Amino acid sequence: MMKAGTVRFLKKASVALIAASLMALSVPATAGASAVPVAPLPDPFYSAPADIANFAPGDVVRSRPMPNPPNFFGVTTWQLAFRSTNSLGNPIVAVTTVFAPIGKAPDGPLLSYQQIVNALGLKCAPSQALYSTDPDVVIRDAAALNAVFTRGWTVAMPDHLGPNSAYGAAKLGGTIVLDGIRAAQRFDPLQVRNSPVAIAGYSGGGMASAWAAALAPSYAPELNIVGSAQGGVPMNLLKMAMMLGADNPHPVFGLALAAAIGFGREYPQQMPVSENLTPFGTQLMNEMANSCTNDILRIGTNHSANELTNNKSIFDDVEGRAVVLENSLETYAGVPKAPIFDWHSPTDALIPVDSVDNTLNRYCAAGAKVQRLLTPSPDHLSAAVIGLPVALNWLQDRFNGVPAPSNC
Fold first, then answer.
1. Residue-wise pLDDT tens digits, 53-110
2. Dihedral of alpha carbons 131, 132, 133, 136, sign
3. Strand partners, 91
4. What is the pTM assigned to this prediction?
5. Are residues 40 and 21 in contact, defined by beta-carbon separation less than 8 angstroms?
6. Are 156 and 110 in contact (CB under 8 A)?
7. Please, how many CA atoms are within 13 Å of residue 186, restricted to the half-sphere of its CB?
8. Which residues make Cβ contacts (< 8 Å) with residue 346, sequence separation at least 6?
């Protein structure tokens, strides 16, 4: 018979494994002894100085000019390491890569764009992946940002999973986005100190964007955020957990295990995942501990949480549920101050659409301006392509000072 403590730990591991799994399809700290650690980058640019606690959130710790990524044109590129805050309130160093169009107007528009990142390795973060030639790492759609640069917008692309690649820890992404905007505005060579700011992203990038919009009134009220365009956003991770289930093998279960590892890194006490898996689960965890999307999918394909934990009561643990709900926008009381543009497919099978509706309805009831677009598409990925041009035009209007529409 298992000890009660062991059963409780298994419940935590199972909740973490499943609760982020469908969220991970969209996309996605200080690790303790119970968390599988991330392999650090050898580049000292990413390291935290000994006096990191003396920096204010958003302060630039160090900066460097960078060559433009392949197929990026008409911009100068910088990387900024800045002080942010993890989910436990501890200071961390995060990184954003910023592209400034050559000849842009001083204090012209600043867009924080959150790339979709499904990863446990730091080599997969945008600041690294933008320069990679590894076919399993490279960001294939990155050059599409050239269409944004021609509008004269400066674009910041943060590593929103943080210094431990805490995949699944959605609230952390929002904090890093806001501090990355602060860092860009405090870095004088970019000439965006007084710029209007917008936020955008789809799926996992949309989740970091939506969290940034919701956190901004309390965490960064000084920022002049004129709008947030967010698509395919997972609003309730616990509902996603129940949509997927725990017992049956799933072709993308690798993303679920990856999210569990990410939760363990961000919440090592509440989610001591590495202590509570079966030997086979531990084997899979170690194999994918620093992987990007392709390897995560390969390692985890057609496995299940039940197979890795031998536990069926996955939704009852109080601490496990609390961590999952802490990272679910549907249960977060804050309301964005900036106007919201939200787009998704009404038949998206990867996110609980009712949670999107519930969250946006709550925003509307609180007086927020929300413009919703239900794309004429049946699935998650096609909705991204259909809605993005509309989102960019909506953001252009916000930068131009056009009053935000609302179809609440």
1. 999 999 999 999 999 999 999 999 999 999 999 999 999 999 999 999 999 999 999 9
2. negative
3. 85
4. 0.90
5. no
6. yes
7. 22
8. 353, 374, 375
